[in-house]
């Protein structure tokens, strides 16, 4: 899939290479006995190219129908025929094209050269060529990545080609092996450099590729973090373009997810301030705010599950206030995500539940309950019911935590 998509965008590079090789190698592939037949065919070239018929016609002297009949009868053709079917069957059409377009004089010359080889030499030669053809059949993902990376690294390439190279990498790095190869092939530095491109589209796609490559991949996460890409991505998070900020958040989430090192760097790059900026900014796109809330929840959950000291952001008073405030934005999906965030935050020992009390979480949750009962249209009723169940769960948890807090204070 990846190959096909990437290939279809640049048919020129590879097809020509394969066809040219086929044209040069073709005469060597033929058994000596049939070389003469090929010469005869070559001599006829120019008069009727389609008279070449299938490759098998000249390779075995049998016609297509006869061969098909034999194969269906289970007997198979000659040994040569099996070899051809196994090794080169899918190249038939390219081979035909190559014959039709090659120089008849040269073909004749090379075909007579083949006749001089002994049977053993010929066999060996054919094996070598067979292996070569296998390799030529389809460029590897690494080949495709090298081409895209060379394009990215070429400062004189057009913006359009640059974008296309990025799109190709985006598809290729979905495969973990390819993502792992990215740095080896010299791809990470050019990609990170593109985060500073003057063109927004280019910046966005680069962030996308970096995010996709580091998704659930500790090795690539560390490589990208090591090159210092996080600082640039945090800056992108402040972009007034929702698309750009959203893609930066995507890349940051992928880079620091389950990574202690990544989360420390996020803190030292002041990533919390960027998240906060998105959360409190009333002009922020809802989708962007949802991503920011989701990232905060993910960080809180990591802290809960790993026992690692969490990000100071998560216990920051203003951050908690902006999370509570978001429950007043009427969007069920956002409210659900915010409730999940609060639920995780309440469980963190580093979060002082008194701050939630300060921002009147209890009244906010009660108001939300009324809203959820009154407002939803028929088709949102079920969803509103689910969000309301979550709201009650959060309320109960909050009341428990408050009680615990008071008891602890009392005991001191
Ligand atoms: C070329 O050969 C094919 C197959 O033998 C035949 O059908 C076709 O009429 C020929 N064309 C010309 C131009 O001779
Ligand atoms: C860089 O791109 C230009 C324009 O496409 C091309 O002419 C040149 O050969 C490329 N340079 C390298 C080193 O690939
Ligand atoms: C990118 O180009 C620089 C010089 O322009 C070169 O040193 C480097 O090896 C190139 N990297 C790749 C991956 O082609
Ligand atoms: C943003 O919205 C909140 C709640 O709707 C409101 O309290 C706050 O004043 C607004 N902030 C700005 C800067 O408009």
UniProtKB/TrEMBL annotation:
**Species in which this protein is naturally found:** Eragrostis curvula (weeping love grass)
SUPFAM superfamilies per UniProt: ARM repeat (SSF48371)
Against InterPro entries, the record matches this protein to: ARM-like, ARM-type_fold, Hsp70_NEF-Inhibitors, Nucleotide_exch_fac_Fes1
What's in the GO CC field? endoplasmic reticulum
User: Which positions are tagged coiled coil?
Assistant: none
Keywords associated with the record? Signal
Q: What is this protein called?
A: Nucleotide exchange factor Fes1 domain-containing protein
* A Pfam family the protein falls into: Fes1
Task: Spell out the molecular function terms from Gene Ontology.
Answer: adenyl-nucleotide exchange factor activity
- As given in the record, the signal peptide range reads 1-36
Location of the Nucleotide exchange factor Fes1 domain: 91-182
The record's annotation in Gene3D superfamilies points to:
Leucine-rich Repeat Variant (1.25.10.10)
Q: Does the keyword Ribonucleoprotein apply?
A: no
